[in-house]
Amino acid sequence: MKAGILSSKIPTSYTLGSVLNLSMIALFIVGAPLLFLLFIPKSHKGKTLQDLLKSNNQSQEPTIKAEAESFKLPIKAISDTLNNGFFLPLFIFLLGLIYVIQHLWTNGFDLNFNIMIFMFLMIGLLLHKTPMRYSVAMKRASSNISGVLFQYPFYAGIMGIMLYTGIGERLAEGLVSVMTIDTYPFFAYLTGGFVNFAIPSAGGEFAVVGPSMIEAVKALGTGLPEATVTEMISRASLSVAYGESLSNMLQPFFILLVLPVMGAGVKLQARDVMGYLVLPFLCFFVLQILMVLFIPL
To answer: Are 135 and 150 in contact (CB under 8 A)?
Structure first.
């Protein structure tokens, strides 16, 4: 309302307490466990916790380089090459160096807390030579919060690019330009899911795409009763949120917090979990689209 996008508050009966939202909650509480139950292999014996535990028989802790080498895939993959190569850290370091020089040139010798953290992050990445070695070193130094320390600054940087260059707004405008009064929930859902790959923060994402989405829906509802337009805005906003949350299954930021706690002492990485999230993503993708299109508020 302060931004002038909405003239009045949207009642919770159109959002949290709506039939659509309650149905969506029921889908995940009831449907998700049943779906994963169906995915359990019937004829294959899976690995147990004992199989995944790290060995305690080692006489000494392996070097950072050796541990990083142990995480390499047995097959050739672009992601594995980037994780274990020097090109990506060097490229990121050079970009960081340019930013630091620009910051000092513009602001003088302003070594505030943020710029110091950024400088140490870039220097550490360069000295460890590969992203995998750096992640191993961070895990040893900061244990359960290493994933957040390493990756969150990059997510924040991507969000800044999307927000302050207008890229996020242009993406949203491109999608909403093809919306109709019948299809706007579908495109709002796609917008939420697509932009989440660049901005893995629900609040940050809506700050980027929300205003464009609301304005487009208001334009579609020109001439309709105010209550109908409010309902349309609510459905579009919920659709963006559902799309954002579901695409987290393909970009599971939450694993950065879950694995260090639940997987402590276990040789388990995010890529070991990802395969189990793709099929549920596809199933819920279809179901959620049907729900945002046809279930009433």
So the answer is: yes
